[in-house]
């Protein structure tokens, strides 16, 4: 039977122990691994592996010796409780070795959890699970997590007291980073708030969120957008010493001012625009970007984008003779001065 994305979220948290098996497949290996961990933990419990009620079998080994899977499914455990056989990294070439053991499954046998990458609709594995009355197939897509999935992660992490602003920023963060990084961020947030009974705030989230790998470039973009022309020179020296390329800086500048323009030019105002930008902006940076967009205004931001485009074209021109970094620095100063007008 097929599990829809909405039904799958609930099933992973509360799986049925008397099913033949579950096939989890999709393109994102991290998302699949997290779902597999969740469903197996719910089936066998925290002591399942120690009590030898969980058997791990790589699909490649089953292909070499199909009896391994059949024996693991039929094996009788020493400890009471549900048993699971986890088959990892299955592909269509492994189907002939896997399916006979599943067809021989009887009540009381171990449940089989299989993970796989992308499978075509014609896949024998997919067809078996989707048409089986006592088994499920769940496709994992690369879509951002839904509100239900985020709330389930919060509950699992023990975070129940969040302000509305913090929940909004957390939803934005979930769309901007990988699922594994998101779960680690929640774990860090739990430790960060340990012993603190106050609600989680955007500042708390910003303190534990993954740091940008381009922090100093972001600092430069903020300096320019906030008309702090006197600070451009010293920071420019640091960026030059770090080996930052002029084109990299120009690309970051274009991206930042396009974001500001999208916020300022939104039909419903900057407040609506900040909610629609992608990738989303969260935490204290959200308020900073909002202030910058409102300070510039859509018309002036159009002029700034024209200036940045001309600088980018000059950098890429074969006839350009001026030092590239000096060209970018001059453009940054012009933009900062433009913000004051």
From TrEMBL:
GO-annotated cellular components: DNA polymerase III complex
Top EC category: transferase
EC code(s) of this entry: 2.7.7.7
Any one of the GO BP annotations: DNA-templated DNA replication
Statement: the UniProt record of this protein carries the keyword Cell cycle: no
Coiled coil: none
Catalysed conversion reaction: DNA(n) + a 2'-deoxyribonucleoside 5'-triphosphate = DNA(n+1) + diphosphate
Keyword Transit peptide: no
GO molecular function: DNA binding; DNA-directed DNA polymerase activity
Domain of life of the source: Bacteria
Keywords, comma-separated and alphabetical: DNA replication, DNA-directed DNA polymerase, Nucleotidyltransferase, Transferase
Recorded family membership: Belongs to the DNA polymerase HolA subunit family.
Protein name, UniProt field: DNA-directed DNA polymerase
Native species: Pseudooceanicola batsensis (strain ATCC BAA-863 / DSM 15984 / KCTC 12145 / HTCC2597) (Oceanicola batsensis)
């Amino acid at each position: 039977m097929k599990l829809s994305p909405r039904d799958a979220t609930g099933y992973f948290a509360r799986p049925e122990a008397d099913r033949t098996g579950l096939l989890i497949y999709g393109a994102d290996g991290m998302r699949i691994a997290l779902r597999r961990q969740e469903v197996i933990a719910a089936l066998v419990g925290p002591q399942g592996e120690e009590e030898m009620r969980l058997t791990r079998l790589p699909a490649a080994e089953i292909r070499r010796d199909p009896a391994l899977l059949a024996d693991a499914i039929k094996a009788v455990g020493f400890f009471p409780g549900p048993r699971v056989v986890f088959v990892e990294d299955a592909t269509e070439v492994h189907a002939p070795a896997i399916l006979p053991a599943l067809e021989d499954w009887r009540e009381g046998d171990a449940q089989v959890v299989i993970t796989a990458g992308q499978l075509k609709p014609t896949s024998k594995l997919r067809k078996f699970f989707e048409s089986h009355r006592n088994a499920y197939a769940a496709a994992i897509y690369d879509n951002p997590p839904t509100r239900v999935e985020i709330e389930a992660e919060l509950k699992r992490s023990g975070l129940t007291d969040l302000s509305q602003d913090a929940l909004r920023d957390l939803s934005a963060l979930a769309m901007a980073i990988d699922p594994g990084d998101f779960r680690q961020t929640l774990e860090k947030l739990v430790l960060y708030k340990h012993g603190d009974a106050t609600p989680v705030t955007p500042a708390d989230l910003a303190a534990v969120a993954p740091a940008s790998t381009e922090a100093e470039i972001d600092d430069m973009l903020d300096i320019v957008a906030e008309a702090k022309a006197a600070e451009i020179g010293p920071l420019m020296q640091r960026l030059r010493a770090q080996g930052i390329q002029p084109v990299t800086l120009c690309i970051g500048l274009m991206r930042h001012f396009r974001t500001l323009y999208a916020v300022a030019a939104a039909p419903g105002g900057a407040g609506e625009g900040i909610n629609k930008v992608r990738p989303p902006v969260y935490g204290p940076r959200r308020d900073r970007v909002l202030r910058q967009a409102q300070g510039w205004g859509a018309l002036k931001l159009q002029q700034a984008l024209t200036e940045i485009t001309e600088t980018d074209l000059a950098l890429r021109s074969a006839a350009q003779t001026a030092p590239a970094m000096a060209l970018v620095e001059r453009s940054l100063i012009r933009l900062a001065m433009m913000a004051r007008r």
